Every structure is written in structure tokens, then in C-alpha cells.
Amino acid sequence: MHIHILGICGTFMGGIAAIAKSAGHRVTGCDSQVYPPMSDQLRELGIDLVEGYDADQLQIRPDIFVIGNVVKRGNPLMEAILEQGLPYISGPQWLAEQVLQNKWVLAVAGTHGKTTTSAMLAWILDYAGLAPGFLIGGVPGNFNLSARLTDSPFFVIEADEYDTAFFDKRSKFVHYRPRTVILNNLEFDHADIFPDLAAIETQFHHLVRTVPGNGQIIAHRESSLQRVIDRGCWTPILWTDETIGWHAGPGESVFTLLDGEEIRGKVEWSLIGRHNVRNAVAALLAARHVGVPLTQGCAALASFSGVKRRMEWRGCENGVTVYDDFAHHPTAIATTVAGLRHKIGSKQRIIAVLEPRSNTMKSGNMKAALADSLTAADEVFCYANNLGWDVAEALAPLGSKVHIENHMDQLVDLVLATAQTGDHILVMSNGGFGGIHQRLLDGLKQKTT
Q1: Where in the chain is the domain with CATH 3.40.50.720?
Q2: What is the distance, to the nearest Å, from the Cα of residue 233 to the centroid of all Cα atoms in its chain?
Q3: Dihedral of alpha carbons 277, 283, 285, 291, sign
Q4: Sheet holding 154-158, edge to edge
Q5: Burial of 184 (0-12, 13-18, 19+ CB in 10 A)
Q6: Disulfide check for 377: which of 212, 280, 325, 352 has CB 3.0–4.6 Å away?
Q7: How far is residue 375's CA from residue 330's CA, in Å, rounded to a whole number?
Q8: pLDDT number for residue 448
Q9: Interatomic CA distance for residues 424 and 348, integer angstroms
Q10: Which 3 state secondary structure label does DSSP give 341?
Q11: Which class does domain 2-91 fall in?
């Protein structure tokens, strides 16, 4: 089958392209911005890419068009497809019908931690010899690719609550029919899609409705997820908690896995942050559902190398360390800063460099929580280019440690002028942020000459 993917350079659709190619399909695709690294990865797979959405692409004559949720009505190629009555399908539905049928799907859902927890789970299963397929919204260091198809009956997927396509406004995850589900947490997000938290809870309840009675749900005990489950659940649930039931003992680099007061395993690893410890508990329990002993799962996590762009160490120059993190929401920002603070202690400075780029952040819906999320940082730099809301007002409670800049060059210069030996620069954005990470490292290196 020849499939032509619209919006192919997104992480999810690029993953579908790689999986489809591995399954033996002929794959082509288009996007408005065809650029590295995704464009390079796809071309290395032998996938032909077209820049833009010109209606002339109908001449490619695929068997079906696979539509990413970036595509809207008014898109010239999409309009031509509709006018000529050509076959099309959403990315999640194509994946469900062509790949996930007859697979034991392990889905990881939640506002925060989906990518890292999915990567942990895939690695635990791989370590145990189960060789799972996976589709993850990031690049796990243990695999160095975001998607793969294998002959294994197991498939791990990052289960996103974002909408499926312009013609299917259900969340992506309702297509996957998982047998094992992790519900990490649930907060308001995706303000461009959902009017409020209740609307997201409804989508999560739809996910719960698809899980069979012989499946397993692992959910963190919090009010929003409790409301989801209270609307109806037909699947056994393992609740995780901070102090009771299944939970982790004290510590971050070393912690124990506890079932009540009984120690069931011990993890020694390189990740930081209590949020990652909580992610690990969920991943261990999900892996146990497919037969991986907890002790073997704990051993796997000792060699888990994290995910690119999730507290990723990018380099150290002139005694200043630069990290890259995907933080897209005040809660994610707060947990990331707290994790770094725990790691480095109180005597070294954290310089937070933030680009509020996610749709929720750009909308201003989370501005009231932004200052509190950054209180543990010593200096805060915010790139406020054309945000549309008053960043200075939102961050005013942080006082003199706040620096706001609308121009990238000036932002880089200000951060470099502030950085001192021993500092840790934490760059947070869900985009490329103008390559600021390398620009900072290059500038720091020049300061030594």
C-alpha cells in the first residue's frame, strides 16, 4: 500500500511514517516545514518528502492519505482530497487498524510525564527480552529513535489526549484499545482544544471505557483521576500514591518500591526529580502486568538513560552547565526546577531560561501559576516575543531576579552576562528555541579566551 502523510514532520506522524515503512508500505509525505532532524530521519528511511500542501500532490496517487491533526480546513491539498472524494484517514486510526490490531497495547496517558514514562516502560520490556514496538513523543536515549515496529505482541504508546484530526475531535488515545493503561496525572492543558478540565476528564473517561475487564489500569491517586474513575470503570485498578499503597520510598537517585510497607524492589539510577520516581513506579507496575518481575524492572531502570529534551545535559563550558527541558506547563516547570535544585543543592545557582511556547502557555491561561513555578530558580529569563499577554505582570512576584526580553540576540547576551562559574542554566521550551542551547555553550566557551 502507498500512503501519503499530511503533516509528516511532527513527532507522532513521523513515527507513523517510520512504522509504516518498516511494515512494508510505500510512504511519502508533506509538511509546511520540512527541516532536520525529522526530515533527515525520514529521508534516511527512503521516504520522499514534499514541502508544503500544494494540490498538485494528488498526482502522487497514493492508495490513501493519512491526515495529521496539524491539517485544517482550507488546506489546499486537503480541500482537493475532499472535493475529489479520495480516501483519507487520521493518523491514530490508521495506526490502530494497521498496526495495533492483535497487539497487547500498553498506553501511557496524563498531562505530564507521558514521554519519559513511555520510554521507561519500553526499556523495561526490552531489557526483559520482550522487544516491544513503540511510538513515543520523544527520543529515548536507550533506543535513539522514537518509533519502531517489531514482531513482539507488545506495543508501548504515548497516549496523547490531543484531538485526532479536524474531522475527528476525539482524543487520539481512544483509538488505541489498550490492555494496560497508565494514568499518570490530569490537569488542565491544551487550552486551544479544551474549554476546561471537565472536558479533558470526559476524554480520559472515554479511554477508560475502552480497557477490557482482563486489563489493568495504573492510576496516581489524585482528585481529577478519581473523578474519571468514579464515572465508571470495568477494569482492575492499581492506585499509586506518595505514601500509601504502591509508592516509592524516600530518595531520588536511590529509592525503594513499596507495596504498603513491604519493599518489593530497589532502584539506583541517574534520573533526577521526585516526579520521575513516581513515573518509575507506574512503569514498573505496567511492566509487571505483562509478566516482567518487579526486581527485573528495577534492574532495567538502573541503565535507563532518559529521553532527549527531558532534563537533557547539553554541555558544560567555563564551569557553567546547560540543560534542555521540554517543560510546557507550570507544573512541569516547577517539578523540573525542583529536581535540579535537589540535585545541585542550595549553594549553586539555577538560571531558568523560559520560552512560553505551548498553546496553553501562549494563551495566557496558566500565567497566574507561572511565578510560583519558578520560585526555586535564582535568576529567571523569559523570552516574551509576541506573546499577547503581560509577562512582566505575571512574573512580578519574583521581583528583581526576573529578566524579560523580546529579542533572541539580546536574551542570549543577557544570560551570558549573568552566568558565573558553577551556575546551571536550565532552558525550558517545547520548541527549538532558536538553537539557544548551543548559542549559550558557544558564548560561554568564548568567555574563557
Answers
A1: 2-91
A2: 26
A3: negative
A4: 147-148, 133-135, 154-158, 104-109, 180-183, 216-220, 237-240, 246-248, 254-259, 262-268
A5: buried
A6: 352
A7: 11
A8: 61
A9: 8
A10: helix
A11: alpha beta
How far, in Å, CA of 398 to CA of 374, rounded? 8
3-state secondary structure 274-294: HHHHHHHHHHHHHHHHCCCCH
For the domain 102-301, what is the CATH superfamily, name and number? Mur-like, catalytic domain (3.40.1190.10)
pLDDT digits (tens, 9 = 90+) for 149-180: 999 999 999 999 999 999 999 999 999 999 99
CB-CB contact of 311 with 247 (8 Å): no
pLDDT digits (tens, 9 = 90+) for 355-379: 887 776 777 777 888 888 899 999 9
Question: How far apart (Å, rounded) are the C-alpha atoms in residues 154 and 170?
Answer: 24
Instruction: Give the torsion through C-alpha atoms of 49, 53, 55, 61, to 10 deg.
Output: 30
> Cell digits for 170?
476525539
For 23, 170, 203, 228, the CA distances from 200, given in Å and listed in that order, are: 33, 10, 5, 10
Instruction: Return the sign of the alpha-carbon dihedral for residues 35, 37, 43, 48.
Output: negative
- pLDDT category, 103, cuts 50, 70, 90? very high
Q: CB within 8 A of 82, min separation 6: which ones?
A: none
Q: Where are the beta strands (DSSP E) in 75-146?
A: 88-90, 104-109, 133-135
CB of 97 within 8 A of CB of 257?
Answer: no
Other C-beta atoms closer than 10 Å to the C-beta of 369 total 15
Residue type, 411: L
Grid cell of 204 as nine digits: 480520559
Q: Scan for cell 534520573, then name that residue.
A: 271
Give the three cell numbers for residue 89: 484517514
Cis peptide before 37 (omega within 30 of 0): yes
What are the residue ranges of CATH 3.90.190.20 in the chain?
Answer: 312-446
List, in sequence order, every residue forming a beta bridge with 180; answer none if it has no partner.
106, 216
Q: Which three cell numbers stand for residue 105?
A: 497495547
Residues of the chain with CATH 3.40.1190.10: 102-301
Return the closest-CA partner of residue 203 out of 170, 233, 177.
170
